From TrEMBL:
<protein>
    <submittedName>
        <fullName>ATP-binding cassette domain-containing protein</fullName>
    </submittedName>
</protein>
<keyword id="KW-0813">Transport</keyword>
<keyword id="KW-0067">ATP-binding</keyword>
<keyword id="KW-0547">Nucleotide-binding</keyword>
<dbReference type="Pfam" id="PF14524">
    <property type="entry name" value="Wzt_C"/>
</dbReference>
<dbReference type="GO" id="GO:0005524">
    <property type="term" value="F:ATP binding"/>
</dbReference>
<dbReference type="InterPro" id="IPR003439">
    <property type="entry name" value="ABC_transporter-like_ATP-bd"/>
</dbReference>
<dbReference type="InterPro" id="IPR050683">
    <property type="entry name" value="Bact_Polysacc_Export_ATP-bd"/>
</dbReference>
<dbReference type="GO" id="GO:0016020">
    <property type="term" value="C:membrane"/>
</dbReference>
<dbReference type="InterPro" id="IPR027417">
    <property type="entry name" value="P-loop_NTPase"/>
</dbReference>
<dbReference type="GO" id="GO:0016887">
    <property type="term" value="F:ATP hydrolysis activity"/>
</dbReference>
<keyword id="KW-1278">Translocase</keyword>
<feature type="domain" description="ABC transporter">
    <location>
        <begin position="8"/>
        <end position="249"/>
    </location>
</feature>
<dbReference type="InterPro" id="IPR015860">
    <property type="entry name" value="ABC_transpr_TagH-like"/>
</dbReference>
<dbReference type="Pfam" id="PF00005">
    <property type="entry name" value="ABC_tran"/>
</dbReference>
<dbReference type="InterPro" id="IPR003593">
    <property type="entry name" value="AAA+_ATPase"/>
</dbReference>
<dbReference type="InterPro" id="IPR017871">
    <property type="entry name" value="ABC_transporter-like_CS"/>
</dbReference>
């Protein structure tokens, strides 16, 4: 296969489901000579087109019911499209519904041979892979028990072990990682990385933005059966996060700094954010990074003191006891490396209808690289923070070190060597 080859090409795919109000309607429709319709049509996929190149790792995002599973089933051939078509170049292995191809009465071993055969392997080829499958699944003697006795974790591990050990060209994974523990997830990702390095194309559905950012080179956002956005993972996930956070809130555009009469005395940053959202998306007025000489800068050396100054407007009507000013530092993959909030530091903001300045001071432990500063005004009244104003990419900076350092963080570590015996 050529490197620039398309692995998956989805062309104008539409999928309509027939919805019947009562089970009897289906029967009546099939018996009707007049061709009377007893169903309503529901469009789960609406003219979806995109392509995935060989070797790409693509994250598929979307709210519940947006059509992700339907799309994956059409790609794998489990389901046919109402119109349009889907071209697949290579051997697909999928983890759509865990253990979908398993016979519950068979033992793990019997299921391995049965599934391997379905995947087109002969007995010798399965024999050769058996050790790899067993060591990945890590279910010990249970492998000789009927799979109906397995815990959901064992089931997942066996299903996974099987799907990735059949030399696929394309691997399709639907949210299945959610069932595994951290050890198993890490093992899966190591294996995915290995497959990726070997040029396997991976299509991956998850609601976990961090996972998608960490793992995928491209993202596709499905919304009510349509492709809403496709492209760079960080950009698509940023827009998607903005969308799910905005969904239930009414944007109060006119609240905040622009209404205030004293705006001239307050410095204002012209932001160049990756994205910005929230209930009051203009409360954050100013964000700047300062070095130890109190000079604004976007270059820091390792172990240098960083001061982050944030000026925000506190509008009327927000509950002050739950109000929090927060910042995070992400790497270019969008992974939060450092998060700090006034709420976790037990700082209570006591006044509204005014500007407040929050200063965060910390030592730079970040090794060489480029970093993104995100700033938020949060409502911490619920377990999951809600955002009054969130700027992803309020500032950007580089960190560099004169000496060679490894890892993401270079924290001071006390070290000593004790000579024990000759
Ligand atoms: N067999 C079916 N008959 C009728 N409607 C269906 C059928 N299968 C799925 N749907 C509907 O199609 C829409 C898309 O479903 P799908 O399972 O593809 O979404 P999804 O994005 O995978 O959702 P989730 O994240 O919850 O798994 C949903 O509204 C669902 O109710």
């Amino acid at each position: 296969m050529n490197e620039n080859e398309e692995s998956i090409k989805v062309i104008n795919v539409t999928k309509n489901y027939k919805l019947y109000n009562k089970p009897i309607d289906r029967l009546q429709e099939s018996l009707s000579f007049s061709g009377k319709r007893y169903h309503n049509l529901f469009t789960a996929l609406d003219n979806v087109s995109f392509s995935v190149q060989k070797g790409e790792t693509v994250g598929l995002l979307g709210k519940n019911g947006s059509g992700k599973s339907t799309l994956l089933k059409i790609i794998t051939g489990v389901l046919s499209a109402t119109s349009g078509n889907c071209k697949v170049n290579g051997k697909i292995s999928s983890i759509l519904e865990l253990g979908a191809g398993f016979n519950m009465e068979y033992t793990g071993i019997e299921n391995i041979y049965m599934n391997g055969t379905i995947q087109g392997l002969n007995k010798k080829e399965i024999d050769q892979r058996l050790e790899g499958i067993l060591s990945f699944a890590d279910i010990g003697d249970f492998i000789n028990q009927p799979v109906k006795l397995y815990s959901s974790g064992m089931f997942a591990r066996l299903a996974f072990a099987l799907s990735i050990n059949v030399d696929p060209d394309i691997l399709i994974v639907d949210e299945a990682l959610a069932v595994g523990d951290i050890k198993f997830q890490t093992k899966c990702f190591n294996k995915f990385n290995e497959l990726r390095q070997n040029g396997v194309t991976i299509l991956f559905v998850s609601h976990d933005i961090t996972l998608i950012r960490n793992f995928c080179t491209k993202a596709i956002w499905l919304d009510t059966g349509k492709v809403r956005m496709i492209g760079d993972t960080v950009e698509v996930t940023a827009e998607y996060t903005k969308f799910i956070n905005m969904d239930h809130s009414v944007t109060k555009e006119n609240e905040g700094s622009s209404n205030s009469t004293d705006i001239l005395q307050i410095p204002k940053t012209i932001f160049e954010p990756i994205s910005r959202w929230g209930e009051y998306p203009n409360l954050i007025n100013y964000v700047e990074l300062f070095n130890s000489k109190n000079e604004p800068t976007s270059f820091f050396t390792l172990n240098e003191k960083i001061s982050l100054k944030v000026i925000t407007y506190v509008p009327d009507g927000v509950e002050l006891k739950n109000l929090s000013i927060a910042f995070s530092i992400k790497n270019t993959l969008g992974i939060d490396l450092i998060v700090s909030t006034t709420y976790e530091n037990d700082i209570v903001i006591t006044k509204n209808k005014c500007y407040i300045e929050t200063i965060f001071v910390f030592e730079n432990y970040l090794t060489n690289g480029e970093y993104v500063i995100n700033v938020a005004v949060e409502n911490r009244g619920n377990t999951i923070p809600e955002y009054y104003d969130y700027i992803e990419g309020a500032k950007y900076f580089k960190s560099s070190s004169k000496k060679q350092v490894f890892g993401m963080f270079n924290v001071p570590v006390e070290q000593k060597i004790v000579y024990l015996r000759e």
